[in-house]
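Input (structure):
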C-alpha cells in the first residue's frame, strides 16, 4: 500500500489495524523502528506519511470512506478442527468481510491480497451479497490481487514487477484496479483472469517454487554421497537455484499444505501426497544439516560452542517464520550444543519465542543440556567456537575476513556454509583459512581497474589482471607484480581466452572521448566482442560477471536526474556512438546471456569518476583543468561552461562496484555522485585549490556533448546501501597531488 501511495500521490491510502501498538510503530518518528523491516520501505513511508498515507486504528471510519478495500490479513494454518495442520484458517478473512459488509457505503470494491485457498472469494461474496440485499443502497464487487513478492526485495518487486495479476468478474472493477497499477507498470505486464484462476495462481506459484527448492536440495544430498559437485550439476541441468537449508517464510509451507488439503478434498489423494512430500523433504534437509554438523564435530556437539550466522529465513528481513535456522538450532540444542547466534535484524526476544527456550547469557547450564545466547557481531559469534554455521545470506557474510575469524575459533575449526555465499571458499579445517577467490579484472591496469585490483589484493583474494595497455599503464599495478596472488597477462579482450576464475570484473574499454574516438571501430569491437568473450568465459566456468557500463547510454538526457528506467536520448551516428552504443549492446548481451544461459551478471552504469591514476592526456575535464592549472596555462571551457556533470571520487566508485558484485541485484544500477556541478564551477574550484590566478578561455562544444549528466542513485542506496562519501573538494586534493607528482617526474 505504501508503494501505491508513493506512485499515486492523488490517491488517499489509509492503513488500518486493531493492534494499537503496531499502528503506533508505523506512526513513530524513528523510521528505523517500523514493524516490518524491508529495504527501502522506510524511505517510502517517510515520503508519503502525512501526505496521502496514514496509519490508524479507526477501522470502521476508514471502511465507510473507502472506494476500494484491500484485505491483507493473516491466514495461518489451522491448529485444530477439520483440516488441522493443513487447511488455512480463514477466520480473520471472514471477520474482515463481515466488518466491510457492515460499514461500507455506496459501491465498494473489495480486494483479496492475502494468499487464499481457491474459491475463498465465494465466501466473501456470499457475506457481501447478504449485506447488499439487506441495505439496498450498498453494492460490492470482489477482486483477487495476489502479490508475487520476495521478502528482502519486496519494494523493488513492487516498483518493477514482472507481472501484476488482477482476477475478478466485474470488468469495471478490474479496470479500476488495473488503472492504479498502470500508473507505473506497463499494461502488458498486468494480467487479468477470473477470480478462481487468480486465487489458485499464487498458491500454485509458491508451491512450484518450493518444489524446485526441495528438488535441488535432494540432488545436493545425492551429490554429497557420490562425490559430485551440486553447483556443476545445477549448471548442467539449467537450474538457477542453489542448494541450501530449505525454504522458509510465511507462505511456502502454509500454501503447500493448504494445496494438499484442497487436492484431498477434491478427491485427488495422489496429488496431495506429492505436495506433502515437498514439505517432508524440506524438513528432512534441515535435520540433515544438523546431523552433518554433529558428524563432522566427531559425532558429538555436547558442551561445544557453535556460532550461528543468521536466524531470519532469508536476508534483508527480520521475518523468522518457518526459518530453517529454527529447526537446525533446535536439533543442535537437543544434542547439547551451546549456540552463539548473530543476526543483524532478528531480536533476541524473537529468537527465544522461536526456539522455545530462554537465552542463557553466560551459557552456564547443567552438563549435557543445550543453551544459546544472542550476540551482536560476527566476531562474537566466532569467539572460541568449534564451528560456524552460516544459515542466512546476509550481505555482510559475503565479505568475511576468514583469517581474522580463524584466530577466534578453537582448533580444529569448521565452517558450514549452508547458503553457498562464500563463493567457492573451502571449509575452515585444522585452523586453516578459507581458499581465496580468483578474480579476473579486464582493463586491470587502467584508471578504475588498478584501484579495483588494489581492493581485491588487500582483501586477500587472487587477481588475474588482463590489459592490452592502450590506456592502461603497468606502473598502476607495479606494486603487485611478483606477488603470489597476482598474475598479469597482456591480452586484448576482443580475442577469446581460457582461464579458470570465480568472478569477472569486465572493465576493459577506453572511456574518454580522446581515446575511444581514436579508433571508433575498435572501440565498438571491444564493447561487443570483448563482452561476448567474457560472457562466454563466465558461462563456461560458472563465474559471476560484472559489466562496467556507462552513463553515456543515456545520451543527451531529456530526463534529469537519470534513473535506471530511463531509456536515453541517443544518437547511433555521432562521433560518440561507438562508445555509447557499444555499451548499450554490451548490456544487451549480459541480459541475453542471463535469460538464455542463467549466467550471473551485474551491470553498473558508471558516471563521471575522477582520482589518482587518471591519464594527463585523456581529455576529461578534471584532468584537463588540473594539468592546465599546474602548468600555469588558461583553463579551457568547451561551450559556456554551464554544462553540468556529477563527479564521483574513485574510492567511492570502487566501493559501489564491489557491493554490486556481492549483491543479489542484477542491475543496471547507477553508480555516481548525485551532487551536480557546472563545468565553470569545477574550473574555479580547481583554480582555487591550486591557488593559481589563471583566466578561463572558451572553445566550441564538442559534437554530441551532453548538457546535463546526473545520476539518480535511489536503487544503489536501496539495494547496495551505498552512496558517495567524498565531496568534490575532498577528492580533488589527492587527485591534484597525484598529477603534481606525475608532472614533476
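Output (sequence):
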Amino acid at each position: 500500500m505504501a508503494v501505491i501511495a508513493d506512485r499515486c500521490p492523488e490517491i488517499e491510502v489509509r492503513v488500518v489495524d486493531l493492534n494499537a501498538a503496531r499502528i503506533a510503530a508505523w506512526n513513530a518518528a524513528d523510521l528505523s523502528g517500523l514493524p516490518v523491516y524491508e529495504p527501502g520501505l522506510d524511505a517510502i513511508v517517510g515520503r508519503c506519511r502525512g501526505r496521502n498515507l496514514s496509519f490508524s486504528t479507526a477501522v470502521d471510519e476508514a471502511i465507510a470512506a473507502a472506494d476500494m478495500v484491500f484485505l491483507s490479513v493473516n491466514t495461518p494454518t489451522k491448529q485444530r478442527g477439520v483440516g488441522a495442520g493443513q487447511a488455512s484458517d480463514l477466520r480473520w478473512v471472514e471477520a474482515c468481510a463481515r466488518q466491510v459488509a457492515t460499514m461500507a457505503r455506496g459501491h465498494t470494491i473489495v480486494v483479496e491480497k492475502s494468499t487464499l485457498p481457491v474459491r475463498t472469494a465465494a465466501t466473501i461474496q456470499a457475506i457481501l451479497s447478504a449485506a447488499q440485499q439487506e441495505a439496498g443502497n450498498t453494492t460490492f464487487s470482489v477482486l483477487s490481487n495476489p502479490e508475487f513478492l520476495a521478502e528482502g526485495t519486496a519494494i523493488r518487486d513492487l516498483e518493477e514487477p514482472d507481472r501484476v495479476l488482477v482476477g475478478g468478474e466485474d470488468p469495471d472493477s478490474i479496470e479500476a484496479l488495473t488503472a492504479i497499477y498502470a500508473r507505473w507498470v506497463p499494461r502488458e505486464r498486468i494480467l487479468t483472469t477470473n477470480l478462481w484462476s487468480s486465487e489458485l495462481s499464487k498458491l500454485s506459484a509458491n508451491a512450484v517454487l518450493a518444489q524446485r527448492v526441495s528438488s535441488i536440495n535432494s540432488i545436493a544430498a545425492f551429490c554429497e554421497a557420490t562425490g559430485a559437485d551440486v553447483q556443476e550439476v545445477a549448471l548442467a541441468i539449467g537450474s538457477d537455484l542453489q542448494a541450501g537449508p530449505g525454504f522458509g517464510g510465511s507462505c511456502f509451507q502454509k500454501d503447500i499444505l493448504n494445496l494438499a488439503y484442497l487436492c484431498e478434498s477434491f478427491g485427488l489423494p495422489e496429488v496431495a501426497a506429492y505436495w506433502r512430500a515437498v514439505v517432508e523433504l524440506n524438513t528432512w534437509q534441515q535435520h540433515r544439516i544438523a546431523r552433518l554438523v554433529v558428524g563432522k564435530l566427531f559425532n558429538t556437539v555436547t558442551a561445544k560452542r557453535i556460532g550461528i550466522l543468521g536466524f531470519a529465513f532469508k536476508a534483508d528481513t527480520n521475518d523468522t517464520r518457518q526459518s530453517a535456522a529454527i529447526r537446525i538450532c533446535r536439533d543442535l540444542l537437543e544434542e547439547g550444543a551451546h549456540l552463539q547466534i548473530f543476526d543483524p535484524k532478528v531480536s533476541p526476544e524473537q529468537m527465544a519465542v522461536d526456539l522455545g527456550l530462554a537465552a542463557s547469557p553466560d551459557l552456564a547450564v547443567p552438563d549435557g543440556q543445550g543453551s544459546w545466547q544472542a550476540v551482536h557481531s560476527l566476531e562474537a559469534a566466532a569467539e572460541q567456537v568449534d564451528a560456524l554455521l552460516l544459515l542466512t545470506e546476509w550481505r555482510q557474510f559475503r565479505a568475511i575476513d576468514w583469517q581474522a575469524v580463524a584466530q577466534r575459533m578453537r582448533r580444529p575449526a569448521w565452517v558450514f556454509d549452508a547458503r553457498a555465499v562464500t563463493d567457492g571458499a573451502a571449509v575452515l579445517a585444522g585452523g586453516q583459512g578459507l581458499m581465496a577467490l580468483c578474480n579476473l579484472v579486464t582493463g586491470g591496469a587502467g584508471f578504475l581497474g588498478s584501484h579495483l585490483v588494489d581492493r581485491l589484493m588487500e582483501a586477500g583474494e587472487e587477481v588475474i589482471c588482463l590489459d592490452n595497455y592502450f590506456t592502461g599503464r603497468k606502473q598502476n599495478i607495479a606494486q603487485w607484480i611478483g606477488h603470489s596472488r597476482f598474475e598479469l597477462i597482456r591480452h586484448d579482450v576482443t580475442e577469446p581466452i581460457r582461464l579458470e576464475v570465480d568472478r569477472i570484473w569486465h572493465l576493459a574499454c577506453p572511456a574518454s572521448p580522446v581515446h575511444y574516438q581514436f579508433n571508433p571501430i575498435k572501440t565498438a569491437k571491444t564493447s561487443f566482442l570483448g563482452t561476448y568473450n567474457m560472457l562466454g568465459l563466465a558461462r563456461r566456468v560458472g563465474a559471476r560477471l560484472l559489466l562496467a557500463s556507462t552513463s553515456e547510454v543515456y545520451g543527451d538526457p531529456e530526463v534529469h536526474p537519470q534513473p535506471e528506467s530511463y531509456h536515453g536520448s541517443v544518437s547511433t551516428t555521432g562521433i560518440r556512438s561507438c562508445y555509447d552504443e557499444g555499451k548499450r549492446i554490451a548490456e544487451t548481451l549480459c541480459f541475453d546471456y542471463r535469460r538464455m544461459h542463467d549466467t550471473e551478471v551485474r551491470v553498473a552504469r558508471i558516471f563521471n569518476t575522477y582520482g589518482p591514476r587518471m591519464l594527463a592526456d585523456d581529455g576529461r575535464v578534471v584532468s584537463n583543468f588540473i594539468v592546465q592549472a599546474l602548468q600555469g596555462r588558461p583553463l579551457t571551457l568547451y561551450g559556456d561552461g554551464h554544462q553540468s556533470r556529477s563527479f564521483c571520487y574513485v574510492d567511492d566508485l570502487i566501493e559501489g562496484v564491489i557491493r554490486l558484485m556481492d549483491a543479489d541485484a542484477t542491475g543496471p544500477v547507477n553508480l555516481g555522485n548525485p551532487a551536480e556541478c557546472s563545468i565553470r564551477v569545477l574550473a574555479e574550484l580547481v583554480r582555487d585549490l591550486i591557488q593559481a590566478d589563471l583566466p578561463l578561455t572558451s572553445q566550441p562544444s564538442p559534437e554530441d556533448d551532453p548538457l546535463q549528466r546526473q545520476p539518480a542513485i535511489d536503487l544503489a542506496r536501496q539495494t547496495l546501501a551505498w552512496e558517495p562519501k567524498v565531496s568534490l573538494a575532498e577528492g580533488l586534493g589527492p587527485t591534484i597531488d597525484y598529477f603534481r607528482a606525475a608532472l614533476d617526474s
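Notes: Residues 195-226 form the longest helix (32 residues). The chain is about 40% helix and 15% strand.
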